[in-house]
Structures are given as C-alpha cells and as structure tokens.
Amino acid sequence: MNLDIISIGDELLIGQTLNTNAFWMSKQLNAIGFAVREQTTIADVEEAILSALETSLSKSDVVLITGGLGPTNDDLTMPTLNKYFGGSLVRDEKVYQHIEKLVTSRGFRMNENNKSQAMVPDNCTVIHNANGTAPGLWFEKGGKVVVAMPGVPYEMKVMVSDQIIPKLKAQFDLPEIINHMVYTQGVPESMLAEQIADWENNLPETIKLAYLPSPGRVKLRLSITGRDRDLLQSKIDHEVEKLEQLISKHIYSEENEDLASVIGEMLLKSNKTIVTAESCTGGYIAHLITRVAGSSAYYKGSVIAYANEVKINDLNVSVNDLDSYGAVSKGVVEQMALGVQQKMDTDYAIATSGIAGPTGGSDEKPVGTVWIAVATPDGVTSKKYLFGKQRDVNIERAAITALGMLQREL
Questions:
Q1: Boundaries of domain holding 30
Q2: CA–CA distances in Å: residue 40 to residues 8, 46, 56, 147
Q3: pLDDT-based confidence at 69, cuts 50/70/90?
Q4: Number of separate domains in the chain
C-alpha cells in the first residue's frame, strides 16, 4: 500500500525552514503498514500542486499534503484542491465557531482572513484542527485518499495521530511492517559490510537490509513485511541473533539511537559518575550528555581546556610533556582525563585533544588527528584517531567516538 507526501511552501525550497513534517509523517505512516513511495517538496503555486497531485495519485493509494492552508492570498492549497475535486466552497459552522473561539480567546478580533478559513469544499470531510485555525481536508476519489493539513508541525501532528491514522487504518487493509534497528559504533560502514557479508548474502529474500551511516556510527535496519506479525518478528529475531554473534562488540543498542542516553542508563544502573575534559570538541560531549533528561544524576561537569594554560592550571598536565610532545598527544590527553577525574571526584572521565581544522595541521599531525582518553576506576586508556578535513564533522565524530569508548569500558 503506497503513500506519498507532498510538502508545500517556498520557505522549504529555499532552505528557510527545515522540512521536519515529511520526516515525522513517514515514520508514523510506515509504522502502520504504508510504504512511503515518495516525498515531494513544491512551491505554493497552483500548477505545481496539481502536477504533483496527479503524479502521486497515479502511483499511490494515499497522498498526504502539508502547507498552504493559511488565511492569506499566498496559501493556495484549499482553492486548488477544491478546483481539482470539483467542489464548491461553503461555510462550515463548526469550523467558524472554533476559529472565532480561538481568535477571540487570544485577545484578537475576527477579520475577513479568519472568516475565510471556515470556507471548505462541500465534497470533503473536515479534519478538526484542535491547535489552530486551518482545518484539515479529507478527499476521496476512485478509492484513493488525499488529505491536506496545515504545515505548522504541532497542528499537523495532532491531526495525524488522533484522526488521520485511525481513519486510514479503518479504511485500508494494511500489512504488518517491522523495522528492526541495530545501532553500531566504532567500525566504518565498509568494514562493517565486510564483516557481515556472508550473513547478509544469506538473508531470506523477505528481509531487506539497509546501511545508514552518520559520523561515528552506522545504523543497520532490517525490514520485513507480511500479515502474521508474530511470524515476521520470529524471522527478524532469528537473523538478529546471528548478527549479534558477528559484531557484538560494535553494537551499543537495538532500541535507542542516542548513545549518550544508553551511557546514561548504564551509569545510573551502576551508580557511577562521569566528567569530561575537552579541547578540540569544545564542550560538545558535555552537550550530548546533558541533552538527556536526568543526566544530573551522573554527570558532574566539564573543563573546556582549549588553551594549554588551562590544561596546566586546571588539569595538572605536565608543562614538559606539552613542550616535548604537544597538546595533541597520548600523554597529554591521558593526563587531562586523570586530572579532571581527580578534580571532580568521579568514577569515569573522558578527555579529547586534537586538530579539528581546517587549519593547524602538520605532516606529523594532520588536520583530523584526535587523541581520546577514558579514565576508569582501574586506570586510563587512550587511542589516536585520524578523521577528515571538515571541522564540524571532526568534532561530532570525535564526540561520538569518545562516548563509544566509554560505553565499551562500561
């Protein structure tokens, strides 16, 4: 059962607004059994809307549209869909009363633009918008469904979750789709593929494997579609067990993509604490850790030791080692980890020192060279990495790699 998503808005095309709606809807609709065939982003122009709609309806059973339902002249989705489906605009009293209540409760008066939003095609089913003034529109033609919704994410999400998904599930006989994720860290995509090649080549035809790389991590997605969910889950579980035997040391979770959350759970369970000493990552590791709600229970703080004098004065790094080996070296990063561990009296500590770029490298230490150390109750371990040339990617990859090292120690 195919489904298309059409996102309308010039702001999406020119990069002023990130299209999070399509990402979110794809996830929700795939979970209930739809195969998302295509996502399309178009301008708020009648010809573009009609062309995209015709293409989608020729290939998919359901089309979800977001955007262009506002009260101003540049919002053309309503009149265009009314024209396409051959309806007439009529005033919906329930919609009007809802808009009036919403507008006046905010201290404003109803104007003509507000009133115009109560005009809806007479051949559609109105989808109530609990959080805004633009109603959703549900059209049917030749056994296919077209649903238009406002582009405001918090308005659209409630409509999809509370009304549209239940209606779609009631109307269509949807298959079961299982997507099982395996999250890995510490092995590049090419090496991972090499390690699991025999297993991959012998997967049943019904199971599809996808590699989803990002800086420092590779996600593996195993997908299967059918009618008997228990049987499908059994097939997936059987293959995942084989996979775990091959790459267990690289898997950090099969449920939670957020490595910092996984580490937080491990620290909480063992009643341990963590601190960071960061040079090249500039506090990014601390940011990842503190994004997790409840991290104050195990995270004590960080020393951003960007300058050598901070490494010396706050982390007790040896002046002689800095002079002899430089800040980006095994001895210095290990002293940083041990120094911050002792300073803040924690069980574990992470330290980073490197050349994020794009300048500052040398033949001996090119851009992308990063030393990472992890101090534990039993000592300190460290490793040198050579990442790439992009500063932002190097910082992210170093942070994820450092968390991966800590996770393996835990």
A1: 2-171
A2: 8, 15, 9, 15
A3: confident
A4: 3
